[in-house]
Amino acid sequence: MFKDLNPILHSQLRLAVVSLLITVKEAEFTYLREKTSATAGNLSVQINKLKEAGYIDVAKSFKDNYPRTVCKITPLGVQAFEEYVKDLQAYLNIKK
Amino acid sequence: MMEQEKELTKEQSLELITSMINKAKNDIFITGLSALLWGSVVIICSLVTYANYYLNWNILAYIWWLTAIAVVPQIVISIRESKEKKFKAREDDLYGGIWISYAIAIFLFSYLAAAHPIEQVAAIYLTLYGIPTFATGYGRRFKPMLIGGIACWVFAVLSLYTPYPYIMFLLAAGGLLAWFIPGLILRNRYLKAKRQNV
Q: How far is A79 from chain B (nearest CA, A)?
């Protein structure tokens, strides 16, 4: 019996953001925008959804008088991502 | 451009994960300036020391103090790099720790060597140069530094059989291979990546 894929992660932009954040320790909003080629508005909405789910931490500050947003994956986010990948592997019948 | 609610197939999800992880993994932010700075300092100090063997100018005997002065531009470089950096890689702290412990070891050793003169001091310096260089080259899979680190250790052995002042050529070659050449390569990569992002 297959489990349903996590709907928070099973979205193109959110999955891209979490995949990037799982690789780096932390990343600025501008970095995520560059790598995903998403618009600032879209990215902002999806980051908020991930934050509400408790998958990422978002810290806002100022750097040289400009606002700076830094995102970091949480332990819950890591766990959700690992489960999502496991479920994907089960669907695709990939053996480790 | 990525759309937020696009329906993904399972295969597309897996492809997306792989491509994003690879993008982030290959994204190393190194400007190359620190390597160029320390490579230049070691080369200059070694060659000046060699020349001073024949010139015998008192002032040039203090040339190695340049390594202490170079800490100032290094701090400026580090601050500017951290401001420019848009992400922090997981291994950044590890490499930072390796280079900081190296810096402490080299300054501590310089103090000890000044207080209690040690023979074959160049061999110890070259061995120390090789440690963080090899570790960085090995960890980041960056061949020029890997080769530079090994070269320093080979020069350390050679220095045991090389008379003064020619030993200074080995120190200069260590600085050139471990830091200056890798620094040039990293600088070119950084500038190329910067041009592509403009």
A: 15
Residues of A in contact with B23 (CB under 8 A): 20, 35
pLDDT averaged over consecutive 10-residue blocks of chain A (96 residues)?
82 95 94 93 96 96 86 97 92 69
Residue among B28, B85, B20 at smallest CA distance from A14: B20
Q: CB A53: neighbour CB atoms within 10 A?
A: 17
Rounded Cα gap, residues A18 and A43, in angstroms: 12
Q: Evaluate whether residue B63 is within a structural domain.
A: no
- Across the range B83-106, mean pLDDT stands at 92
Asked, for residue B22, whether it belongs to a domain, the answer is no
User: Is residue A30 less than 8 Å (CB to CB) from chain B?
Assistant: yes
Partner B contacted by A61 (CB < 8 A)? no
Q: Is residue B175 part of a domain?
A: yes
**Structural domain contains residue B5:** no
Domain of residue B114 covers 87-197
